[in-house]
Write the structure tokens for this entry.
Amino acid sequence: MATYAGAVAPTGRRFQNSALVDWITTSDHKKIGILYIVTSFLFFFIGGVEALLLRIQLTRANLQIISPELFNQLFTMHGTTMVFLVVMPILAGFANYLVPLMIGARDMAFPKINALGYWFFLFGGLFINASFIFGQAPNAGWYNYANQTELQFAPGLNEDFWALGINILGVASLASAVNLVVTILKMRAPGMTMNRIPLFCWTTLVMAVLILGAMPSLTTASIEIFFDRHLGTSFFQVGTSAGGDPILWQHLFWFFGHPEVYILILPAMGMISEVLPVFSRKPVFGYAFVAWSTVAIGFLSFGVWAHHMFVAGLPLVAQGFFAITSMVIAVPTAVKIFNWLGTIWGGALNLKTPMLNALAFVAMFTIGGLTGVMVAVVPFDWQVSASYFIVAHFHYVLFGGTMFGVFAGTYFWFPKITGRMLDERLGKLQFWIMFIGFNVTFFPMHIVGMLGMSRRIYTYPAGLGWDGFNTIETIGAFVIAVGAAIFAYNVWYSLRHGEVAGDNPWGAFTLEWATPSPPPVYNFKQIPVVRSRRPVWDTDHPEDPDWRRGH
Amino acid sequence: MPSQSRGTGRLGPALLVVSGCVTLAGCAEGQNMLSPHGQGAQDIASVFWVIFWMAAGVFVVVEGLLLFAIFRFRAPAGGGLPRQVQGNTPLEVAWTIVPALVLAGVVVATLATMKAVAAPAPNALEVTVIGHQWWWEFRYPAQKVITSDELHIPLNQPVTVHVTSDDVVHNFWIPELDRKLQALPGHDNVMSLTATKTGTYNGFCAEFCGVEHAMMRFTVVVQTPDAFNAWLQGQAAPPAEPQTAQEKAGQQAFNSGGCNICHQIGAMAPQGFPDPQAPSRLIIGPNLSHFASRQIMVAGAMPNDPTDMQHWLQDPNAVKQGNLMSTFIHGPSQGQPSSLSPQQVQDLTAYLESLK
């Protein structure tokens, strides 16, 4: 039975009167958010170890440290873990924690479904990792191209773990998505119009809509491959009268897969849209344009999927169409980058750890975005598709982008969630080590990809000029690992000895900072009435409130 | 033909693979897409430089503004708040339109290059490429030639390549010559390939296709038209008859040992071996009619010379773990004695190396 701390300022203990049973049975969005975030970080370390093993095997040509079969399982699980067990749930976790607070609500619209979502996530993650116990982890890549996944080519349990695990995890995603859409649309505090919700809420809303639109395609595909394998259907088989085709898998998967990558980035963009203004001491530049760009990206994301299939031999007209739509989606993305520059321009920058991570997001995502435009140039993709150039591109947007955004958000909101500050010196140290390690690991991949190195190869011949780059990349991966270890230490240390945070240690602007740190279970003693986009700024600066500026 | 001696001859398979791969690379020109020796690769490299410099320009501007702002706008020591600027609509319009225009230019370059690279060539030599787990089969249908591992094409003459697969999805890629193209079972994907410089170029499978995807390589040998025609005629000719007693013993071992079920030598087509997972499907192996004319074997895992051949026949699994030959020829790395006697290994090697 939970008890409340009421409005008493916390003494710095991170969890109020928690018992194991309380955590297991909770439907409080804040506790569920914490569960999501902590579990995701644990999977992050697992996915990171998988990556280190891959990099060790690839350090030099012709190494035989890890067998081909194990290597294939490791790269599949690294991708699957990072996408489905780290980035999606950690963004869902922050969304669960923050959205009700940011819009002035007491909880999400459906608290019990919220809890159900978390436990499906945990169970799905454990289930899919349990495959390692059987030595049959999924091994066909995180996107599992048919028809290699048909029973005759994949007789083991690997594929079945993947298909079933993905569906279990899908329940969690859908639960979060429904909850977030309804909560944001229906539970805002008085005065909190859609024009005033924090940009993190806008990006979370669009992410949730994308989940609702895209997951059905993945669910369909994974059920169909399961049926092909066990019920004799032939959705992806050739040579049968049923008329199946492996290319159907590619269409179904990427119809999900492209919106998926926006699911993976938009909330992180929302996070830095909150961090940059606070640490520049001015509002975000072009709020409406950033919000509209987010909506445009969401909408357009359903129209670009075949840019993952430029080498599949589709008709040229179709390829040209998808090249055009992929270029179009670059425009709202560029608009956002310029608005973030506008946010810091003319500001009074406070270069604390959250800000460093947010600035790194802008810098690294720009690189990833530019290589994204390059691979939208179809003939260039005809060369570099499925090579290490693509591996470099998506790590720049997903690690250089999303993960740095997540670290920005973690350092920013840790005081609110736990009542303590993360150590600033360790934070800066971790940031620089991770930033350097990240670039050392992934920049050379652009080059080695253009030198002909395919993805997903467990070894390569000597004398092709790939060895040196691969060795550098492996060193970089270990530097990242050091950074991750420092982060883990910082969390452990700060939970015990971190400086006690007040309600608003950063002088931030949005409603979650109007509560104690950590907030009581009911969030607000009284639901606030909101008159602008920065309600806490208005309270803190009665001489210059935003509502006088008309927002 | 062997290009370097093997010395002691009892080196471990791993070391052989290493040295074999060094040999492969040493013989080949390379695989740098920015060092194009084919028409397609040339067109793509050209458009790459256009978009690279565009991207580099944007990079310098954006990152430059970012770095400038970080240094210029640090919070002053005395505190104080900056102007609470909320936006600037004309600026928003400008930085929406300018990227759109730049990207429109990129679209034009994209579509033009697509058209150039994908342009079909009439009356070209027809070649069929078939991906298998984990090797590449090459057919010249008009000349009734079937070979594997090494694709020969004439210099400066377009070749129409039909790419397909016998099993799962593969991807046919020779970075220095042209674009890559997926090999999909049940599909006929077509590309036009024109090489502009003689030499041997490295090719790779570029779509994850199972446990030995990494070892599914090939080479493209670009020859002058005369040399190419001579090669093609040689390939179309019947295979050489064994001359020495050892070669004849090798042929005997080949036929009676069941090798001919999967591997074709001469006119006899392979029956194929039923796939244990799907018995209606028949697995075949590379055509060996003119095996000794190739520089590489086992999809680029080793150079083609007697010592490597013997190691392959003794223990295929040690060379290429999980490959299908090891189902038939067991070896120490599978914990079993080889199903071929040392004499058979030597005889088979002599026979196969006689098939020029």
